[in-house]
Task: structure prediction
Amino acid sequence: MSAAARFVRYNAGLILAIALFAVIYGTYAVLHPNWGLNVVLQNANESLALIFVGMAQTMAVLVGGLDLSVGPLMTLTNCFGSIVMAGSGGSVLAGVVGALALGAAAGFMNGCVIVYGRIQPIIATLATGAIYLGCALILRPTPGGAVNGDIAWAFTNDLNELGLTFGWWEDLGPIGLLPMQALFLAAVIGLVWFPFRATVLGRGCYAVGSNEQAAYMSGLNVNRSKIAAFTLGGFFAGCAGVYLTLQMGSGNADAPQAAEYTLRSIAAVVIGGTSLFGGTGGVVGTIFGALVLRSITFIFRVIPAGAALSFVADPLLQPLFEGLILLLAVSLGAARVLRVKNRLSLFT
Amino acid sequence: MTSSATAARKPRFTVDLPIVIGVVFIALILAVGTLYTLKTQGTATFLSPNYLVLQLHSGAFLGITAAGMMMVILLGHIDLSVPWTMTSGAMIATAIGGTTGDLAGLGLGLAVGLVNGFGVAFLRVPSMIFTLGMNTVLLGLMVMLTGGHAPQSAATDMMTFLGAERTLGVPHSVVLWVLVSAALVFVLTRTALGRYMYAIGNQEAAAYLSGVKTRLVIMAAFLMCSLCAVIAGMSLAGYSARAFQAMGDQYLLPSIAAVVLGGTTILGGQGRYSGTVIGVILIVLLQSVLNVMQMEEAYRQIIYGVVIIAMLLIYGRQRTAHR
Result:
């Protein structure tokens, strides 16, 4: 098998997610009356928190579990951030670092409860999720908080705005048009995810996800890999919370919103090509999975009124179509069922 | 999943441990609640029969939901479409009204169960994600039908009869819960279907090789779950005299928690129905004690989470796969 063919085979899920995103977002761009960099920025703004939450979920799924606390944890870091980040330069930095550390610490706690308490991840995180949501409510009984407007603006736009707001630079040309969201994402992927994946711990996460017993027999430290996966997941959820704080400029301990993010994160992971049985996939696929989910929402906004399909643009129908597309996307995996020669292999 | 044979050979008391501890926790919760009311009001509200019957009355809806949820969890699956199955069953029934409405609600439950079962058993999409999609589709259908508002129509006579009324002080919802429980216990312990469900939960491949039509069993379990959900949803609508958006949302996580607290493993194959009943009573009492103590929502959530973890730490610790 050539190298290219092997790459395609091992990354089929990722490639499918990218293709799906390209088609859906491409349609959106074509249909949008004045699609441009501003629209891209706005879309990125609406997507980044979900992307981070999806990445958090990916870590739990990779080791063969499921994390129901990602949404509540994002809410907790959001509320924490909205309190600490109110102020100027130094306190904002402290807030960001503190919120990320809080996320990682909560993820670490998840990992410890799961590994040393020997409780199934889905149930353990159901309980810790309730605890995180409670903490978020203590921090912010009512929505509010005032994050420094300049900073919030500068870090949720493109590079040029960042320079202009603080007077650091005037115009960087084409580079200056890069959205900050892309930079954040690239930083987290490049500085956290890729290095982590290359370590023994990161490799161990994949091994534990595909076969825990074999991983143990091979001398891997199973417990440490699991805890590391959940800690990193908590860190990603913290990233989501911080970004949400910057985007909203406030904190809100909103339980339905937390639940919605948790559920959508699972969908993003699956569309992104990570198997719910663990051991394959990765956070890069999830990014595109989350983007696919968001693009579906975007596309409903731009369907022209006179078109033959204009009835689908009815806002009352949107939840239905979102659900149908989600069902369809996950049922695509059913193609596997038609291919198997031995039905017994379905059960393993 | 790996230890079906050893589990069957284990002495009885280990299987009963969750139930014993559940009862102890229930007594503990009642004691704390009673102490609190004795101190603040001078009455033992929590021990009065009236209060307990009231708790059972409203707890029966969670009980029926959890009973259905247990059927799929026993197989190692999960049904996340329960909230909107409840809601849409109730909404359809109230919107149509009369006996036709009742039948339509049940029919909707049947349809949802069939689709879920088909997706999980035949398409082999992980139940977690398929039922999640189904939940969104049902939500979308209801938004389309009602225009995003609560429907104005009232509960049908049947729903009021089941959900709100009492005979000789016994709430009908409790009777309904008992009937549903009896039916499910019969299925689980006295029929081949019940045996197959435990077998599939332990090792689906082994069940398949033994000649069990595993896909039909999975469909049957999802059918039971969805039917329980619509029954709970419709009687809940009778209890509150109408159906409203998202009325089922607060039943999903508690029903899963009740099943797991009752000693059913989330991986399937092990668990007793009596445990689920204890789990439901525990959760209902915990919620109402926290209510009476006027605990803030924040602390309520935290206590809720801590109790689940504490109980599972005592008996839910699974053997690790590699030891």
Chain B touches chain A through 60 residues (CB under 8 Å). Chain B has one domain: 15-315. The first strand of chain B starts at residue 166 and ends at 167.
